[in-house]
Amino acid sequence: MAVFCYQVKKWIGAFAAALGGLDTLVFAGGIGENSSVVRSRICESLGFLGIELDEIRNAASEPVISADAGRVRVRVIHTDEDMVIAKAVFRILGESETMRL
Description:
Layout: H1 2-19, E1 24-28, H2 29-34, H3 36-43, H4 55-59, E2 73-77, H5 81-100
Parallel strand pairs: 1-2
């Protein structure tokens, strides 16, 4: 878990640098939606970017888990990964069917 959280922090830092800062950080998917511990570990030491969690909101997996004083809004957003994968497969298979005709 330590390596995973470290790698995510590195990507957040890289994207923040490329974008010139952050307005919002979004956690989604299985881990992002369901693990307050992982979200907390990822966000610790990112205060220099303006990321500050409200641990009570985070523990409750509320839609907004950032502290009111933080410059960056941190959100938890539900995703339907299975549906996204199914649509992509359908699109790819549909295209290959069209290509055969």
